[in-house]
């Protein structure tokens, strides 16, 4: 039990790091009060440009990769990687250092999958890229990923892995409730519209 506890704490603390907030504060504003209000890669891209968005996405992916790999290295126990990865996702979404107001968890969820099974994650990333290109909305790729990953985990690793991944799926869906509303109302900002820079702050 100690291994699982330590792995969860490690993953959560890594998840609390938020480059989107660091960058926006360095530029004199709070990303949580701009655009969609989400301190993640999508809003960073809309508010600060493609460079910031890519940097934030890479940071969020890599911290989840680190959580899984470090947990497996120092706390070798069954499913410890999945637990650390999900803890990282939850740390990103509900960071104690930022009053529990974090991002929506998609990039970190992808990073966790990348560390758990890079081949399956690569397929999902290609699918996400295609869906985002066709629909113009990252949120469509998000929903596809968080629904399909637990199903794949159940088939590949068993029920326990699938249940752990579902611990990330449900809060991610809850965090995206406003995206669902904006999609319904036709007010969601797509990538092509964001790339024109009309919503950029800095």
Structural description of this entry:
The chain is mainly alpha-helical and 202 residues long. The protein has eleven helices and no strands. Helix 1 packs antiparallel against helix 4 (50-74), helix 1 packs parallel to helix 5 and helix 6 packs parallel to helix 8. The longest helix is centred in the first third of the chain and has 25 residues, at 50-74. It is globular, with a radius of gyration of 16 Å.
β content, as a range? under 5%
**What integer is the average pLDDT?**
88
Helix proportion: over 70%
Instruction: Note the quaternary state here.
Output: single chain
Straight-line N-to-C gap: 46 Å
- Uncertain regions spanning at least 5 consecutive residues: none
User: What structural category arises from helix and sheet content?
Assistant: mainly alpha
The biggest sheet, with number of strands, parallel, antiparallel or mixed sense and barrel status, is:
none
Q: Number of helix segments?
A: 11
User: How many strands appear in the DSSP assignment?
Assistant: 0
Rg, please?
Answer: 16 Å
Question: What is the molecular shape?
Answer: globular
H/E element order = HHHHHHHHHHH
């Amino acid at each position: 039990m100690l291994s699982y506890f330590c792995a969860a704490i490690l993953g959560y603390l890594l998840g609390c790091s938020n480059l989107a907030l660091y960058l926006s504060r360095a530029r004199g504003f709070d990303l949580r009060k701009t655009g969609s209000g989400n301190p993640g890669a999508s809003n960073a891209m809309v508010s600060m440009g493609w460079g910031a968005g890519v940097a934030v996405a890479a940071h969020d992916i890599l911290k989840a990769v680190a959580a899984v790999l470090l947990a497996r290295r120092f706390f070798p126990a069954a499913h410890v990687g999945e637990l650390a990865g999900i803890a990282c996702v939850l740390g990103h979404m509900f960071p104690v250092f930022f009053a529990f107001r974090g991002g929506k968890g998609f990039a970190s969820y992808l990073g966790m999958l990348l560390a758990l099974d890079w081949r399956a994650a690569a397929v999902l990333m290609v699918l996400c890229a295609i869906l985002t290109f066709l629909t113009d909305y990252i949120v469509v790729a998000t929903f596809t990923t968080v629904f399909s990953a637990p199903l794949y985990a159940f088939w590949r690793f068993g029920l326990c892995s699938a249940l752990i991944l579902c611990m990330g799926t449900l809060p991610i869906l809850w965090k995206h409730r406003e995206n669902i509303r904006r999609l319904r109302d036709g007010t969601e900002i797509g990538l092509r519209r964001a790339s024109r820079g009309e919503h950029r702050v800095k």
